[in-house]
Design goal:
Layout lengths: L2 H11 L1 H6 L22 H15 L16 H7 L11 H10 L7 E6 L10 H13 L4 E5 L3 H5 L3 E2 L11 H7 L5 E2 L7 E5 L2 H5 L12 H7 L3 E5 L10 H7 L4 E12 L2 E12 L15 H6 L1 E5 L2 E7 H14 L8
Amino acid sequence: MNVKDLKQFIFTKYCDKLTKLDIHSASELADDFDIIASGLIDSMSFLALQLEFEATLGNGMDLSLAGDGPLSTLETMAFCMGGEKHQHTVTIKEWEEALKNTGITSGDMLVIHSGLQHLGSFENDLDGFLQGIFNVIGSQGTIMVPAGNIPVFKNDAFDKQNTPAIPSLGVFPEFVRTRPGATRNNNPLDGACALGAKAEDLMSGENTYAYADDSPWQKAIDQNAKLLCAGIDLSYASIVHTTEFREKVPYRNTLEFKHTYTDNGLTDTRSYYLYARNPETTHYDFGKLKAYPAIIEDVKKASVGHGTIEVYNTQTVIKTAMAALRQNPEAFLAQ
């Protein structure tokens, strides 16, 4: 069974439930839609579905073919029933249309978090991905990506112009950082990089305290930026840390990081401050925001490659997060 046919099967079988998830046709199902993680069915129902495939279609699932990835995405399920994994290369034109379909337009400022491995390949690779964005937002548009590298700073080796963004942020932030005209903020603890019309403004200032009012993150919020989650969701939205800083959540404390720092070839010792959690005992999940009505109403989605992009208004995200933390300071702690 190919992915297209499986989408139609799943949509027909679970139409009512999918409608509640704001999915109104089989074509709106992304290849990486996970029927368990989305809450569509539970693991026992997934086992029953496998038996149904075998009984009604004569085509069971060989889960040994799935590899290390999730078993319950549509793409993996189809592949395990003898289909081929989707290998379509997203063209620049298709990418532009997807961006426009989420309301992104000329002059926009975008804060981008990305996991491009979840979308697939793009025409001209990262150059095409970036070109498509600027083809839509134009010369007056601006993009900002995370670009910090705390471990290098703690090892007294941070160089503002040359230290790469930490690899866990994905490949796109480092690609942006190395583009002509890109600029980076001073603080390596909430590190960011920007490109476009308002890049210098976003990155300017000393920004001694991470995620504070003079941080690029708060500046982007103040300028009504949009949050583009490409292949990932709100769980990875660093911009929400600004609300933890403002609300002084009880699971974080202000820590000073004083280390060697190089800027334009000049090396000195600098102190920067982070409202830090204990990573061994405190785990957060900003993905919980997706359940709030204001976020559900605000998000715009589009299928891209074998994944999905989500676009939010940063002010809506922040106002919702602030309200949640004021009601429960531990609202975003993982269970």
